[in-house]
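Progress note, sequence design subtask.
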């Protein structure tokens, strides 16, 4: 019997006759500080994963639809990302100098992703027939395998600030002009909610001139914003969310002041060896200013500026007229040491079931206040005391991995500030100078998604994916082409099954389509793929030479592929 291979090891164990326990949960909770140490590397990791995934999807679509050559350097980019997922790098416990290399590795990977995405997406709009009518065409791409209703923003300039947005059927779409990211004249930023087909695109057109109709702005002032479904209110004395009221269900979502920034004592080493939970409140941020910074028919934004010690926190709460989730853009300028920062959200539910995302799945967590790892979302569901019905709140994020749930309150761990690569039992000396983690400015976004029933019915998995993988917008021009004004290239039935990855196989020109079921329900799925030209099957990739002289124009066809999920 060979004991030097995994199979040999397990054969020997099986033959031993010894009793072994059955483990139905995760095998290890160790060094809980690693879930949140070094926010920068963790957000770069999330961004790089999503950027490469997005570029692979549209590179596969462009190869089928326009004949665009599939890029050859994705493997180089993925190797850089995977190298940085080594446990000491992604855990935030390496030497400070290592994070310069990690940053460059992630940057190189995202540079490859960005070039390949642009290469793919430019080929599709150039094949769309767009007539010259005095408007500016805007093509919006949806990277997800389901129809998406999502907010879109793009820098725009050259008009007088009076624009009208039209879809492909000349129907007017509510549009709002917001402040440009450039501090100059002659530019603005356009914001609207797009209704996009599954993994495809839609053409909108921006026209100059005043709108013939006037869209009613959201009801808002300097302490509250509401749309048809929710009313968000902020306490002017504390800057905390005083309430999030579901007007349709007549339920108050929060059980107390929410989005509460709490500073915790954290004298532990970088790994937080021996720590189970972060306790011991050191202080809280105090509000400096609350104001309404955006207000129109598409969205309204309440900005809350707070300060603690030498640190500053800005939270922009965005409520959309046509969307039910509330997006919160966060900027932290952190200057503290040996302390951690959490945002706390008490929910008005009893009892509470806590569920969070793990890779390609979800898991229920204990509500004992212990620090736990998670990915793009955490959900608290239970019974609403006002109505007795099942209700819940999902909190989505684009770059955080640590949280805790204690009774009916969830804490999202924003950052920690230990010494770089400090490992017990070394004791820092008071007369020495050290470099501390997470000093300076960082940004991230989280979203509040209240919902009736459980997170499964609320589409939490999809909403988190939409937050992490945003639509892509291209300003186009006029040209002839065979593609329509709106198209979908991949979709899945039923809606509890989603496509996580779409890319070319390494050993040929076949497609790899990676799906997963999101609601813990056995399903028979059908994948609709549109746009694959008829071609003979190849078992190996042909030699790559110069690109074809002109895009292919083969007629598209539907392929329905049933799969057991």
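Output:
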């Amino acid at each position: 019997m060979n004991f030097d291979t995994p199979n040999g090891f397990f054969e020997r164990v099986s033959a031993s006759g010894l009793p072994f326990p059955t483990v139905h949960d995760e095998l290890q909770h160790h060094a809980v500080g690693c879930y949140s140490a070094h926010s920068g590397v963790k957000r770069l990791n999330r961004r790089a994963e999503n950027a490469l995934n997005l570029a692979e999807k549209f590179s596969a679509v462009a190869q089928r639809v326009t004949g665009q050559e599939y890029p050859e350097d994705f493997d180089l980019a993925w190797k850089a990302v995977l190298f940085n997922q080594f446990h000491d790098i992604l855990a935030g416990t390496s030497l400070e100098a290592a994070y310069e290399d990690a940053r460059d590795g992630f940057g190189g990977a995202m540079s490859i992703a960005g070039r390949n995405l642009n290469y793919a997406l430019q080929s599709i709009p150039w094949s769309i027939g767009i007539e010259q009518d005095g408007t500016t065409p805007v093509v919006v791409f949806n990277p997800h395998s389901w129809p998406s209703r999502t907010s879109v923003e793009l820098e725009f300039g050259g008009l007088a600030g009076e624009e009208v947005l039209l879809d492909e059927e000349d129907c007017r779409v509510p549009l709002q002009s917001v402040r440009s990211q450039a501090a100059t004249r002659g530019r603005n930023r356009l914001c609207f909610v797009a209704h996009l087909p599954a993994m495809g695109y839609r053409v909108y057109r921006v026209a100059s001139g005043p709108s013939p109709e006037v869209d009613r702005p959201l009801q808002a002032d300097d302490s509250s914003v509401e749309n048809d479904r929710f009313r968000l209110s902020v306490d002017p004395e504390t800057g905390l969310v005083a309430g999030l009221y579901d007007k349709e269900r007549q339920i108050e979502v929060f059980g107390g002041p929410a989005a509460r920034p709490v500073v915790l004592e954290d004298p532990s080493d970088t790994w937080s060896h021996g720590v189970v939970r972060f306790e011991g409140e050191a202080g809280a941020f105090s509000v400096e200013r609350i104001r309404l910074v955006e207000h129109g028919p598409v969205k309204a934004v309440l900005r809350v500026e707070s300060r603690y010690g030498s640190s500053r926190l800005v939270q922009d709460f965005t409520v959309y007229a046509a969307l039910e989730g509330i997006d919160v853009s966060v900027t932290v300028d952190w200057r503290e040491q040996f302390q951690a920062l959490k945002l706390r959200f008490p929910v008005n539910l009893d009892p509470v079931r806590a569920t969070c995302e793990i890779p390609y799945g979800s898991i229920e967590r204990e509500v004992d206040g212990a620090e736990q790892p998670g990915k793009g979302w955490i959900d608290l569901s239970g019974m609403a005391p006002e109505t007795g019905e099942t209700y819940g709140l999902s909190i989505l994020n684009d770059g955080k991995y640590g949280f805790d749930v204690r009774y009916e309150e969830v804490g999202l761990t924003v950052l920690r500030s230990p010494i770089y690569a400090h490992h017990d039992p070394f004791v820092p000396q008071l007369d020495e100078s050290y470099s501390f983690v997470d000093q300076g400015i960082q940004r991230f976004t989280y979203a509040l998604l209240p919902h009736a029933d459980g997170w499964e019915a609320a589409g939490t998995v999809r909403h988190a994916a939409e937050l992490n993988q945003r639509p892509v917008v291209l300003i186009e021009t006029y040209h002839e082409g065979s593609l329509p004004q709106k198209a979908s290239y991949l979709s899945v039935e039923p809606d509890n099954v989603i496509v996580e990855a779409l890319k070319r196989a390494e050993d040929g020109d076949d497609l790899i389509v990676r799906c997963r079921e999101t609601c813990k329900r056995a399903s028979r799925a059908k994948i609709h793929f549109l746009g694959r030209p008829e071609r003979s099957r190849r078992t190996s990739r042909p030699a790559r030479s110069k690109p074809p002289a002109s895009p292919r124009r083969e007629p598209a066809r539907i392929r329905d592929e049933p799969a057991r999920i």
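Residues 39-65 form the longest helix (27 residues). Work on this subtask will continue into the next period as scheduled.
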